[in-house]
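Hi C.,

You asked whether I'd gotten around to modeling the 381-residue construct. I have! Everything is below, sequence then structure, no commentary in between.
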Amino acid sequence: MAYQITKKSSFFLKVIRKLKLYRLKLIPEILIRMIKFDNLRVFYRYKNHSFFTHPLFERVYDNPPLNFTTKKRAEIFHWYHSADSDFNYNNKFVIEPIDHPLSILRDFEPFDGIKNQNNIFNIYNLKSCKKIILSSKGQYALFIKYFPSLKDKISLIYPPIVPKKLSVKKEDNSIIYLLIASDYKKKATDLVIQAWAKADNKISKLILVCPNLPIEVKEKINKDATIQHYTFVSETKKEEFYRNSDIALIPMHTDGTAVFVEAIEYGLPIIAMRSQHSSNFTERGMGLQIEVPFYFYDFEYYGKKWRTWDEFFEIIEQSKNRGEFNFVIDEFKRLFRYFEKDQKEIKKMKNEVLKRRDTEFSYEIRNKQLLEIYKSCNNKN
């Protein structure tokens, strides 16, 4: 889940950016990087470039593959999501576009990304671009639809997953589902709520963290004793929810990575709607993926059927009104009922999550792969 922006913190952030106060926080970090850096001089975005650091960035800073250097001393630049606007593309770099393959120029409307596709290809295809790092098999499949000729530049490296402390075994036989959504509309929270109401759960509980539920929805779920709703929670409280839950629910119409990473870190099986990264974190017995009529990044429609975010949500609403997402609701309902009858399946999925969390998904393996890439960059002209 991305950092939670409240009205107060949003105002605070605007003041910081307007006055460029973040530069003050950069000073100690730059000084440390000037003194303590590795022979492989790699620059990774400064931690304090923003007062609100995204959870995926935090994991890299807390568990780095090496000691990063300053921008001025760097020989290799590792760009996460997108490069800084003042970056000279003649410098050696690797890029990790954790979002859509067309988002590296910060084109957030679909049509703008499609319009700039040639420019984006030219960046990926630069001789100075030594490697394109993708974080899931789904992202790889989407990427090569846009840029099939760049297949040889790609490395599949999973996002940084840091194992967390697990809770002690519950004494009762209840099933606790956790749904942490940064936005009600984008994360398809309405579908889960509808499915939950139909499932008639006997021993299951839902912890729902979502900041912008419509008033009528909030009033309805407040009457349901099996749902605990929170608008915002502290990091400590969020960690408590993860440790005490049995299954993570990840519905979404758009995209996201942090929620998958957090669930895996706490060993939670995942029930997710199909999206760019969902198959990677539900395959091989780790969880279940629910098919959907379409989602935001679908290659056939992105920037074509919907040219903007607003158009996409208009189409989503129309599709729901026609009942085209009813089978998604029914599948959530079916799974809620199924797991009440067969909790052994939850345990099997959890064991698979823990096994892969501590092996192929571990940040140590990621760091080893990154170091190999950085070294190969140094060996290339």
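If it helps when you're writing up: The two ends are 39 Å apart (CA to CA).

Thanks,
B.
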